[in-house]
Amino acid sequence: MGGPPFDCITNPLGAVRLTFEKAIGLGSGSETHPSAFDGKDWGGLDLFRHFLFHESGLSQVPILNPKTIRWIRPNTLVRYRGMIQDMLGNEFYVGAYKDGNLWRTNKFMDVSQYPMGSSPDMCLWERRLLYCVPVPGQSPWTEPLCELDPNLGMDWSSQTREKRHRMDDEDADPMDLVPDDGIKSSPISKKMREDGLPSPEPECRDSKTTDSSSSMSLFQNFDKDNLPCLVKIYDSPESELKLNEVFEFIGVLTFDSELAVEKDENDELSNDDPLVHLPPNKVPRLHCLIHRKLSAHDFLQCSSIMEPKPHLVKEIREALFRHLTAVLGNDELATHFMLLHLLSKVHARVDAVAVGKLSLNLIGLSKENVSVFGTRLSQALKNLLPFTRCIPLTLEYLNTASLAPKKDYQANRLIPGVLQLPEGSHLMVDETQLESGSLSSIGIENTRLLKNLMDFQKVEYDFQYYKMEMAADVQLLIFSEGKSNIIPADVVVPFQPSLESSEIPVAEALEAWRWYLATLRSLPHSIGPEMQK
Fold first, then answer.
1. Contact, 273 vs 196, CB < 8 A?
2. 449-464 b/e with 16+ CB inside 10 Å = b?
3. How many CB atoms lie within 10 A of CB 257?
């Protein structure tokens, strides 16, 4: 028995097309009308799940990041890991249409494969738009190791040129993107295309295809340190995907090389369309087939998952304690509380109380010794935790920083703030640089936001006309000379280092400590009635 007539990685749209034809019973004499699906899965996702999780295909799927985006071909299967930073609402698209006597589908695509014309046989479906970003404060060690298949980096644009020349003499390849010049003015087709813009003129196309020799030419304007992604969701209820959650999205990377990334001033809808401000050469599009929420364990590089056996946990804890003690200048009291702090998380909420949080304030640090011990501790935590950030609490920072996310109604976007962090993040606040002075209205508001996060583990999002509190789970560590009055912590510990020592832990020890912290924070627990009182 032969294999499937498509490759799930290099030709995922082929799998979508064939499963669609099978689902509607193409050629059987009694076809099912695509409207019966109402945009929902017709069985194609099971094929990808089997390939990814039962045939160990997930490790073969390339990771989409600033390094690999230069080489990954459009219309191939990719993975993107990131935080949902904004939810852009829903968009309608022509999900299925009739091309002559044949039904076609546009699901998991930006542009129709075939001319749709003015056929009355169309099914209008809906999909969700998520703006995702790399996780704020993500540590370098969490980046997955993924060897890129050299075949995915081949010159795809030269193949596209050859196919475009053949289209004059023979039928189009089903997997080619073939926009039709004759339907550029069609309102439905215009809205179907990315950003609602028509195709460039033919002479522009020829110059583009001549100049571009690889997929490197497509994404030239993206931020090399921060690659966002516009993820389009099809078959998931809204409750599965929430703001600030971290996901791995597996889907089809698309790019319409014939799409002019310009704002149509005559289009009245363009001012309200957030996609106008997210051109595809800066923000790649990923049509999600499968997604999964990521926990701290998913960022570990351990080849095998260890069981939390008592003797193993004890050995790892003792080794981690010795390491943190050395980092903290042999201050064992500070180390005990530091370890408890790193294991804390919000387990439940009772009224306004976030049960389980444990913020820590190390006092007795000056500008001089914080540059030594603070820097060493910051680096140690980056080596242990998946997400960690540090903010300098100076007067200038308080008066100018944007800590809370704010809604920009003109761009129809949620502008991120420093405190928009995913669950399980660690935030270090260096208060040793704070000097006397006056706080502006922004500084007073930022001080209130930090105190609110410390006390209630909540962050206020500014929607201009109203404010909304969003639950958070952020570990806060404060360095200060005396007890912090701006951010009063749950525990205040005098920091008294006795000596400076430096050690570089081996990779195996780091992996074990990361596993320890991630595992113990995720273990189930119960609080008895007496303890609750």
1. yes
2. bbebbbbbbbbbbbee
3. 19
- C-alpha 358/C-alpha 346 separation (Å) is 9
Residue 288, H or E segment: strand 285-293
| Tokens encoding 105 | 């589908």
**Which residue do the tokens 């930022």 mark?**
446
Please give the Cα distance from 43 to 351 (Å, whole number): 44
For helices 507-522 and 375-384, angle between their N-to-C axes, nearest 10 degrees? 70
Q: Is 465 helix (H, G, I), strand (E, B) or coil?
A: coil
Say what the pLDDT of residue 189 is: 36
Residue type, 15: A
Query: What SS3 state is found at 299?
Result: helix
CB-based contact 80:130 (threshold 8 Å): no
pLDDT of residue 498: 84
* DSSP reduced 3-state for 390: strand
Instruction: Please report where in the chains the tokens 């030594």 appear, as a residue.
Output: 372
Provide CB contacts within 8 A for 175, sequence distance 6+. Answer: 11, 13, 14, 17, 75, 113
C-alpha distances out from residue 515 to 153, 224, 304, 431, 519, Å = 35, 30, 11, 31, 6
Whether residue 179 contacts residue 111, with contact meaning beta carbons closer than 8 Å, is answered with yes
Query: Are the beta carbons of 382 and 327 closer than 8 angstroms?
Result: no
The whole-number mean pLDDT for each consecutive block of 10 residues of the chain, a chain of 533 residues, reads 66 93 79 88 92 91 90 93 95 89 90 74 92 95 67 46 42 36 35 37 35 48 80 90 96 73 45 69 92 92 71 93 94 96 92 92 88 90 96 94 93 93 96 90 95 95 92 96 91 89 85 94 78 65
How far is 56 from 127, CA to CA, in rounded Å?
Answer: 28
Grouping H, G, I as helix, E, B as strand and the rest as coil, residue 414 is strand
Under a CB-based contact definition with an 8 Å cutoff, are residues 490 and 362 in contact?
no
- Count Cβ atoms within 10 A of the Cβ of residue 81 and give its class: 0-12 exposed, 13-18 middle, 19 or more buried: buried
CB 426 within 8 A of CB 477: yes
**Residues β-bridged to residue 207:** none
